[in-house]
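[job 4471] stage=fold_predict status=RUNNING
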Amino acid sequence: MRRRDFLFASASAAFAKPSGQRFVRVQPELFSTPGAQPNCWGDFDNDGDLDLFVGFKAGIANRLYRNDGGVFSEIGAEMGLADLTDTRAAAWGDFDADGALELYVGFTRRSQARNKLYKKIAGKYVDIAHQMGVDAMGETRQVSWIDFDNDGRVDLFIAFRDAPNMLFHNEGGRFVNVASEMGADDPRKTVGAVWFDFNEDGRLDLFVANQDGTLNGLFENRGGKFVDVAHELGMDAFGRAANYGSNGPSVADYNNDGRLDLFVASYGPNFLFRNDGGGKFTNVAKEMGVEGGERATPSNWGDYDNDGRVDLYVSSYIDKPLNERDYLYHNDGARFSEGPRLEHGATHGIQWADFDGDGTLDLAIANNNPGGTHSLYRNVMAPDAARRSIQVMVHDRNGRYTKPGAEVRIYKPGTRQVWGGRIVDSGSGYCSQSAMPVHFGLPKSGRVDVEVTTFESSGRKITRAASVDPNKLARRTLVMKV
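[job 4471] inference complete, writing structure tokens
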């Protein structure tokens, strides 16, 4: 084991509940290049393994890592994805519901490059952004594939740090920007965003995290219009200083009460908005022990020790030190406690994913500082603890990945006791969106009931599977067609 592996593995073993748990770097010579920014997982070749895209600073080629049974090879140039442009956003999605993932890649304005929409044609990715009407240009940040109007077609949202946000409606053969008429064209300095149905009315709403003292927004989707209700709900960070701002938001049910909560990484105090039901939230970051930080940039939820409570990774961006102050918050139930941090922090991309299908969440990071890496860490724990988990892949009735933002909950069998709540990724890590199953650690081994909530023209639709045995599922993954 290399020195870096030993340092992180030893620290992990000291705090993790499963005996012997540790994180070990995977193919460190392959995942060593500095300058990485967004990262996202998706099975681009439909072979059952999650593959990893990583975007980089200007002058460093973007990379696509193909996963073959847990062993990775870099094929970005071979697949046509090796842009050298300063890349700030990346999102996997299936906008045409053909069963093959597309990739949207967002650049900076100073690069003078238009964003790209890559579709796989004859075995290679080809940019079709212009013909589809989505070749936007600006300081691109969060990109999300979501169906905001419940018409069954996947739409596209793009946040900008220097221009009004865009919302592209999927018209079938082309996209049309409807942000202005829909009221979603926030002109503030948006650097992070996430979509979720905060008031449970059957429509996806939009939270935007804004920088440089500008206030955050929570745009309630009222059908024909988005209305910013962040101030009235106390979620806009009103009165903060001009050098404060928010970045990567992320959604999960941290207290297993069945309602989705929102964490917002920030320059200045972080926010943890507990969902109290009825469309109301309370900021509990301080009392829960997650308010601290320096210049928190991305965040991401994941139950890394499979104890049934979702944990939280938060990274910070500091432009001079090489050892960033990251936080791995362990969810103890009543409060979060701080676990170890990597020898070098993430600064930008954070993605939890079970890339090897062993039941545990692995960690991919992206660090854009000179001394950073974009390391991939395998989560190693005792087999009995690794088996205390289940993953749920949400597909539409045709088996397509078209339901980002859907809610997934698991229950103690035969009861309404919630054992966990997650969201199908609608914006995560740093300005990224993955296309992958949602993962749950379980409080104990055995069967679970699974419930998926999707959004249709008629409202919230619930699909259930009872008494599911994770041990009988390939890669411990239940595929739910909804």
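[job 4471] summary: The radius of gyration is 20 Å.
[job 4471] exit 0
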